């Protein structure tokens, strides 16, 4: 059960949030209140969270460290409340190896719709941000639910997700970062002392030794961006680009500044437009810079995927 290594849907919530449910008193969550005191009718603090539109993205992000199980429930649906209560109970027994996210479909319809539409299931495991629908559990015994969750833990371990959530007020576990490869560490140290040339040299050597070193490729692209923008006057650069849209070099500088400032879509749109209206060497310069900035942002970023399609349209 190692599905997350394949192309699975990434959970997302977009659009307006439905506020119609905020005036209703919440129904008691199945399994007891999140964070209940030990020994009460609840569960050990930390193993269950109640999911809202605001907290959903952070919960999905936590699946990078610890496997998450999302369960949809409704106050009037005995089957969904029973399944959710069982999941919460077993999560408590697992001692923080798994986190349960309870989604009240009446109070958080946007999240519920996103999960069910993207997974086709009411109980979903999330590992590294990727959804894996679980089999129907409405008729399952506690032992059968436990067996499914054991499979989720095995799947998570196979994908390198082996963290724990702190329970009952215990301190969060200290996660020690593995040491960086020597050339990566040299690049990092060079950046810390503001020696960007040395950082570029270290990453370049790492790529020469291993052309498939993706971290070195991304690191080199990021350091090159920092080096290109060193000493650039942003106001003067933007004025120059606005005054002469045909000045390709000026457009490249502003695109760099936009990515550095977090205006990624603006940078990509500027360079796609430059590719579209130029030819020859100018077009190639814009294309190459755009591809370099794709590496800076990350090839799996949705903005990069959109810009790649726009670039292909501009080229062909």
Automatic annotation (TrEMBL):
Top-level taxon of origin: Bacteria
Protein name per its UniProtKB record: Thioredoxin
Taxonomic classification: Bacteria, Bacillati, Actinomycetota, Actinomycetes, Micrococcales
A Pfam family per the record: TPR_20
Region spans: Disordered: 1-41
């Amino acid at each position: 059960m190692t599905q997350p290594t394949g192309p699975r849907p990434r959970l997302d919530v977009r659009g307006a949030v439905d506020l119609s449910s905020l005036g209703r008193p919440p129904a008691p969550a199945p399994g007891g209140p999140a964070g209940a005191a030990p020994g009460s009718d609840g569960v050990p603090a930390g193993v269950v969270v109640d999911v809202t539109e605001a907290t959903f993205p952070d919960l999905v992000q936590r699946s990078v460290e610890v496997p998450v199980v999302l369960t949809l429930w409704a106050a009037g649906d005995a089957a969904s409340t029973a399944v959710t209560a069982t999941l919460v109970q077993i999560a408590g027994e697992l001692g923080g190896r798994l986190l349960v996210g309870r989604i009240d479909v009446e109070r958080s319809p946007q999240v519920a719709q996103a999960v069910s539409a993207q997974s086709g299931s009411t109980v979903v495991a999330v590992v590294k941000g990727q959804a894996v629908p679980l089999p129907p559990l409405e008729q399952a015994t506690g032992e059968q639910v436990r067996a499914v969750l054991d499979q989720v833990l095995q799947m998570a371990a196979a994908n390198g997700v082996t963290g724990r959530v702190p329970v009952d007020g215990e301190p969060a576990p200290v996660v020690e970062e593995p040491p960086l490869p020597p050339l990566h560490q040299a690049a990092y140290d060079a950046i810390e002392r503001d020696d960007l040339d040395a950082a570029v040299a270290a990453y370049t050597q790492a790529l020469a030794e291993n052309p498939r070193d993706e971290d070195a490729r991304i690191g080199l692209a990021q350091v090159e961006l920092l080096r290109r923008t060193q000493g650039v006057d942003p106001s003067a650069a933007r004025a120059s680009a606005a005054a002469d849209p045909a000045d390709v070099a000026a457009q490249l500088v502003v695109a760099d500044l936009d990515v550095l400032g977090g205006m990624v879509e603006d940078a990509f749109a500027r360079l796609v437009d430059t590719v579209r209206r130029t030819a020859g060497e100018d077009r190639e310069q814009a294309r190459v810079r755009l591809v370099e900035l794709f590496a800076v942002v990350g090839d799996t970023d949705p903005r990069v995927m959109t810009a790649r399609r726009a670039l292909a349209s501009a080229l062909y």
